[in-house]
Structures are given as structure tokens and as C-alpha cells.
Amino acid sequence: MPDAAPPDRFQTEVLDKSHEKPVLVDFWAPWCGPCRVLGPTIETLAKESGGRWRLVKINTDAHPALAQRFGIRGIPAVKLFVDGTVAAEFTGALPEPQLRQWLAANVP
């Protein structure tokens, strides 16, 4: 599970791979309390998914251009890429049951 997909690898790690399986991108920052709550939950669910979808975490402090490119105004911000485009998204730390519902509704 890559910790980051810097701009030079975003195309291959997220957009291209989203044609093979959905890619969930977690835009976060180390100082963000809600990010530290949501991150481990998403990582656990990624492992539980059995490879149905892929997780990529992007530190917005380290990669501000990517955050700007995708209009990130608040974090945590989660975007689900399918076939190279954003298929679903949410901002904020969802509780695990809501996150499971969101994934069930949005991951093909």
C-alpha cells in the first residue's frame, strides 16, 4: 500500500491502475487529528477487502500541487477513482459503520 503517489507517479499509481480496480485515495496530513482517526480505519478495511480496491495515501503537506489539482479544501478528503475519474468522494472522518456503507455503495 503506497504511502504516497507523488505527482510524477499519480498517473500510473492512481489513474492508470483505477482501470484495473478501484483506487481509494486518502488525502491527509500528519497534523490532522481526524486524519489520524480515519487513516487506520481505511487501512484496516483495505486489508479486509481482499484486493477488491487499492488504497493510496497522499500527504497534502508533501504534495500540495496534487491537493490543489483535486480541489482539496479540507482533510481528510477521500476520493474513489474508477476508470481514471473520481466516482465518489467525501470529506471528514466517517465512523467505521458509515465508511463500510459508503464503500459498499460506491465500490463496483
Automatic annotation (TrEMBL):
Gene3D superfamilies the UniProt entry points to: Glutaredoxin (3.40.30.10)
Site feature: Deprotonates C-terminal active site Cys: 26
Annotated S-S bridges: 32-35
Keyword Disulfide bond set for record: yes
One GO cellular component term: cytosol
GO biological process, alphabetically ordered: cell redox homeostasis
Transmembrane segments: none
Gene Ontology molecular-function annotations: protein-disulfide reductase activity
Family matches, as PROSITE patterns: THIOREDOXIN_1 (PS00194), THIOREDOXIN_2 (PS51352)
Site residues by UniProt (Contributes to redox potential value): 33-34
Keywords, comma-separated and alphabetical: Disulfide bond, Electron transport, Redox-active center, Transport
Thioredoxin domain segment(s): 1-108
Active site: 32 (nucleophile), 35 (nucleophile)
Family designation: Belongs to the thioredoxin family.
Protein name from the UniProt record: Thioredoxin
Species of the source: Rubrivirga marina
